[in-house]
Amino acid sequence: MGLWRKLIEIGTKAADLFHEREAEGLPPDRRIDSASFAAALIALSAKMAKADGLVTSDEVNAFRQIFSIPPEAERDVSRLFNMFRETTLGYQSYAKQIARKFRCCPFVLEDVLDGLFHIAKADRVITPQEELFLQTVSDIFGFSNREYRRIRASRLGREPDDPYLILGVEETISDADLKIAYRRMASNNHPDRVLARGLPVELQELANAKMAMINLAYDKIMEQREKEKDHMLVH
User: Could you tell me how far CA 187 lies from the centroid of its own chain?
Assistant: First the structure.
């Protein structure tokens, strides 16, 4: 049973309390345990779907893919998702709760941001409102602008001509350090490791695509550097 599925089974009561506080104009409880973490994920996902003003069936299906909801929790999770998707107000508070829980585990936070991108692009259009939502959550999670651009590129396939961005390194990095950075990123984003962190099997395709982009970026840099070395030898 994956991480999200375990958390959903115990998180619905906490989500009810979250929504009660939201209805009263209060922020979520600052304390966070496994149940309230699940509730924060449900709330943040629902508000992501609402970010462009219209929650589509594609976005709802994308949410279901991310959480791999067990049949016995389907009714409760659907009810809570529908409550939280009424407005985007307060999404920063839920992002802060998740950030506090995993501030020492940035790859888990990246998994969450990956999931939000999956919801945002489900209807095949990323609006300025959705972009702002994602950028704000990224900032709350502690990612730099360059890291956000890297994550965005790995999800949306943009900026394909900047392999350094994909690997999150500077162009001045040495070959040895580049190899270290590549191996670290490849290890942390390998589909088997991503699934081991609890993401559902349905997101295997996303993990594979991200890994392929990392490999391609490294290959492009090394090919470019080999050409530059050959050019210098000739001259």
Answer: 17
Instruction: Name the one residue in this structure whose structure tokens are 């462009």.
Output: 52
**0.70 cut: is pTM over it?**
no
Closest CA to 197 of 134, 60, 105, 118: 105
Contacts with 192 (C-beta within 8 Å, 6 or more apart), sequence order: none
Angle between helices 74-84 and 3-23 (to 10 degrees): 40
Taking the C-alpha atoms of residue 219 and residue 6, their distance in angstroms, rounded to an integer, is: 38
CATH topology of domain 149-235: Helix Hairpins (1.10.287)
pLDDT for 44: 92
Q: What is the C-alpha separation between 150 and 158, in angstroms, rounded?
A: 9
The tokens for 103 are: 């501030």
Q: What percent of the chain has pLDDT over 70?
A: 74
User: Which residues 6+ apart lie within 8 Å of 109 measured at CB?
Assistant: 98, 99, 102, 103, 141, 142, 143
Place of tokens 């300025």: 128
Q: Helix, strand, or coil here: 208?
A: helix
Mean pLDDT of 37-59: 88
Amino acid type, 117: F
Q: What does the domain layout of the chain look like in residue ranges?
A: 1-143, 149-235
